[in-house]
Amino acid sequence: MKPFIYDYTYEQLKEWMKDNGEPAFRAEQLFQWIYVKRVKDFDQMTNLSKELRQKLEDSFQFVTLEEITKLESKDGTVKFLFGLHDAHAIETVIMRHSYGNSICVTTQVGCRIGCTFCASTLGGLKRNLTAGEIVAQVVTAQQMLDATEERVSSIVIMGSGEPFENYDATLAFLRIMIHEKGLHIGQRHITVSTSGIVPSMYKFADENTQINLALSIHAPNDKLRSKLMPVNRRFPFEDVMEACRYYLAKTGRRITFEYALIGGVNDRPEHAEELAEVLKDLLCHVNLIPVNHVPERNYVRTPRNDIFEFARILENKGINVTIRREQGHDIAAACGQLRAKHMESTAR
User: pTM to 2 decimals?
Assistant: First the structure.
């Protein structure tokens, strides 16, 4: 199978042009056709020679995302279930905010992290996506927004999968997204979320980017986190927190801690007190997420008043906190829900 053109960073395309006897500026022209004009046919790239277009056609292919399902919420959220070339399926979500359009991308088919409240892990991990398959999600979303002269203004890598277990592809994707010759998404408008893959957290801290880091913490201590997130047995709570401290010292950038509130499990006042104690000396922000009900899981949502009480305790302890605004609730927009339904129906 020919490699995907979207897999290649700008620097790699420059190198490819050099290897094929073409001047380096052809890479800029190619990048513009792909990401600014967003064409998916080498023949349309009219300022490239016929010979070069044929070389590109012989060497590369475009990622094909087959639209299996497209759901639109009352609040403007759009969720796609895309089919890949090998019959696997992934989810991508466009979220509309007052400050612009955000896209949530997926980095793996399925997930092996095993968080007990998440639908993404149902069925386990099938494979990693290539950088180009992640890129294609953004390009496809942007093509949809082109119809109304809107643009993707921010990206969250919070879809199915653990991006730091697909580190190289994720970093290549980021380099393509931020490049000034392409979509040119501002680094500070991109957030990578991890469940706490400690070696990759150190590596990411050393990348010297302005891209935001979010950690799915979901518990204030080792025992409870191991119960909710089996990955914590591999990378214990204190090791994860030490990696956070390294990141903060290295980058000076605030970390977002994502905390899914689960009724009667991790949402009691004592949990809020303990979390505040853990985070008290860190430059951070806590994003409280009322957990989505997943039929295959036996968890319930935290009552509304308890959510506000949890937030109040953190605020009183000096912790910056927000409660995530729910979007796409009427279209099962939480990670993995749409794919899980699709897997179930195809199995039948």
Answer: 0.93
Summarize the confidence of residues 181-193 as an average pLDDT.
Answer: 97
Q: Report the amino acid identity of residue 301.
A: R
Please tell me which residue in 104, 244, 284, 335 is annotated as part of the active site: 335
| Range 301-317 average pLDDT | 96
Position 24 scores a pLDDT of: 94
Do residues 138 and 103 touch, judged by C-beta distance below 8 A?
Answer: yes
Residues 6+ apart with CB under 8 A from 310: 261, 267, 269, 271, 272, 288, 302
How distant is the alpha carbon of residue 79 from its chain centre? 14
Helix (H, G, I), strand (E, B) or coil at 327: coil
Q: Which domains does the chain have, with CATH numbers?
A: 5-59 (1.10.150.530), 66-347 (3.20.20.70)
284 as an active site residue: the answer is no
Mark the binding-site residues, compressed into ranges: 111, 115, 118, 161-162, 193, 216-218, 292
Per-residue model confidence as pLDDT tens digits over 90-125: 999 999 998 899 999 999 999 999 998 887 878 899
What is the Cα 74 distance to its own chain's centre?
A: 23
| Contact predicate 95/170, CB 8 Å | no
Q: How many CA atoms lie within 13 A of 48 on its CB side?
A: 26
- Would you call 91 a catalytic residue per the annotation? yes
| Catalytic residue from among 22, 91, 133, 165 | 91
Q: What is the pLDDT of residue 325?
A: 78
Vertex 131 angle, CA 200 and 334, to 5° = 75
With bands split at pLDDT 50, 70 and 90, how would you rate the model's confidence at 196?
very high
